[in-house]
């Protein structure tokens, strides 16, 4: 059981699941070795949080920083996306933006340091994403579902 109210044990099975999925990716050279390194890194991160949940700053600290960075980029990202006329390409751009946003997580001190050294930006993260098909690629099915506009309510969280 983890201290300070953090309970990460449900994430442990994710390691094995992701490792198996990554090992089976024939498009990645040395997939088994890379999958093992991922699994070990992920397990180390969970262990680090288990020992000291506040070691990377508390949740409010990183959330405030991430929100400030996201808000500063928001207007330009919306303008770029709105300029894409093809709906399918616009949806793919939105999904790529979500992926890049996860990579460009400035709440992570290590990534922030890399970005500042290399001058990397959110837009550069978008452009540097691997091309499709992705390891898990349900984008075409998502586009079809999105185009049907079957939702009843929408909620945006920044």
TrEMBL record:
InterPro entries, A to Z: ARMT-1-like_metal-bd_sf, ARMT1-like_metal-bd, At2g17340_3_helix_bundle, Type_II_PanK
Domain of life: Eukaryota
Pfam family, one: ARMT1-like_dom
Cofactor: Mn(2+); Ni(2+)
SUPFAM superfamilies: AF1104-like (SSF111321)
Xref: Gene3D superfamilies: AF1104-like
Keywords: Hydrolase, Manganese, Metal-binding, Nickel
UniProt keyword Hydrolase, yes or no: yes
GO biological process, one term: coenzyme A biosynthetic process
GO CC, alphabetical: cytosol; nucleus
Residues covered by the Damage-control phosphatase ARMT1-like metal-binding domain: 64-154
GO molecular function: ATP binding; hydrolase activity; metal ion binding; pantothenate kinase activity
Protein name, entry field: Damage-control phosphatase ARMT1-like metal-binding domain-containing protein
Organism name: Pisum sativum
């Amino acid at each position: 059981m983890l201290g300070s109210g953090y309970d990460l044990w449900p994430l442990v099975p994710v390691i094995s699941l992701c490792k198996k999925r990554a090992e089976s990716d024939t498009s990645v050279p040395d997939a088994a070795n890379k999958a093992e390194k991922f699994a070990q890194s992920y397990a180390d991160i969970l262990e680090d949080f288990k020992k000291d949940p506040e070691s990377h700053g508390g949740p409010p600290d990183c959330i405030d920083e991430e929100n400030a960075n996201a808000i500063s980029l928001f207007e330009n990202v919306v303008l770029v996306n709105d300029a894409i006329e093809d709906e399918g390409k616009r949806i793919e751009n939105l999904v790529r933006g979500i992926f890049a946003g996860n990579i460009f997580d400035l709440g992570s001190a290590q990534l922030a340091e890399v970005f500042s050294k290399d001058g990397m930006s959110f837009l550069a993260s978008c452009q540097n994403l691997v091309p499709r098909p992705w390891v898990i690629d349900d984008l075409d099915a998502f586009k079809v579902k999105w185009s049907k506009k079957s939702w009843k309510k929408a909620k945006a969280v920044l």
